[in-house]
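Handout for the seminar on molecular recognition.
Each group receives one record of this type.
Step one: identify the two inputs.
Step two: read the structure output and locate the region that could contact beta-D-fucopyranose.
Step three: write two sentences on what you found, then compare them with the reference statements printed after the record.
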Amino acid sequence: MSTHDQLRFPDGFLWGAATAAYQIEGAPEADGKGPSIWDTFSHSPGKIFHGDTGDVACDSYHRYPEDIAMLQRLGVGAYRFSLSWPRIQPDGRGQANAAGLDYYSRLVDALLDRGITPVVTLYHWDLPQALQDKGGWAMRDIAEIFADYAAIAAGALGDRVHRWITLNEPWVVAHVGYRDGRHAPGISNPAQAVAANHHLLLAHGRAVRALRFATPSPAQVGITLNLTAFRPMSPAAADLAEELDARQNGAYLGPLLRGAYPSRLTADFSPAKVDGLVHDGDFGTIAAPIDFLGVNFYAPQYVGIRPDGEPRQGERLIGPHEVQVQPEGMPVTAMNWLVDASALYQVLTRLRDEAPRLPLYVTENGSAWYDYVTPDGTIEDYERVEYLRDHLAAVGQAITDGAHVRGYFAWSLLDNFEWAEGYAKRFGLVYVDFGTQQRILKRSGEFYASVARGNALPLS
Ligand code: FCB
């Protein structure tokens, strides 16, 4: 598929861009929307850099036609966005809020009018606060409650939306939300994290079934995981890398693909931590067949062991003797995340081996840089162009080597509310001036448009 000056992608390869509701919509109280855990969390002092909130964000609730115009300029065939659960069920359960559903219905129609395929994520982290007040993902009932929500969404949009993603990055939801407390709901409780993890998987399984029942025409249903490669800096760290792999990759791929958690999870991450957590039949539900797997990839992780427990320069302690390492000379983004596209290739070819027939989509990939508007009014984000080029080349190589990658979604369409980092970190192909809400296509957006239009990556 590669000639000397370009790498061609397979016919029908889906090019897209992605966003998430809380990160772009704003309008937290419009049309009967209830509060989500991110509304609560972002308004809690000290939780978000600079005290930022998603109250306005990109104002996409009102400006979605401008966003769609940008998708058209990017020449993409698909848009991955998420539904705000508390717009649709303000308290997380019971009757649907028609005005909330209407917003998404208009968005879907506007996309279809312009020939852009909607790819809908049901849950991208904004749990209705009323459900958190009852225990959130740590309570078992949430699986059934989530399936009811899935059925409502599919009943309203399923005549036009044919691609559904149940959950975005359950690892982040469970472990950053309930173990580290750096994300909403801001809880630091390992037992709750383990419980949340299991209930997220269960909710996914029930939602798969609900989506299949509720959509009038056959739907493609999948889940998005944040998978990565853990690389040991020395032979002594090999075990640590395997353990971290079991926590972040295996704890999802195992139950979803093989109906079992990896055996090597240590006590604090094992389902055995919570008595009675796993019921008979759970794995049958969780491993319900899916039509595709979504992969979010940003950076690999290098890890090492320091017997003296003293991190050296470029290292961060992640256990008594365990460190996360930034190898010298390897570039990092504005998030301080490593840039190494070979790890994306590694993840995709691993999935080729572990799930040989399962179609894959890269549902997020991108990078944050210190973007600024030049006096000419342009954004010359050559680092992002480089990052994109390298990662698209890795996807192309994985396809050549047998991985069934069917599409790629750049994160993100727009600069937006980057969770705990607020507006300080820009991931967009489109620059957003948060003072005026003006949108400007960045140099990387032009580059991505040329790739999407040509279905090929220029190699020079
Ligand atoms: C992912 C999230 C997405 C965005 C990127 C940078 O973990 O799914 O919402 O914040 O990271």
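Reference statements: The longest helix spans residues 190-214. The mean pLDDT is 97.
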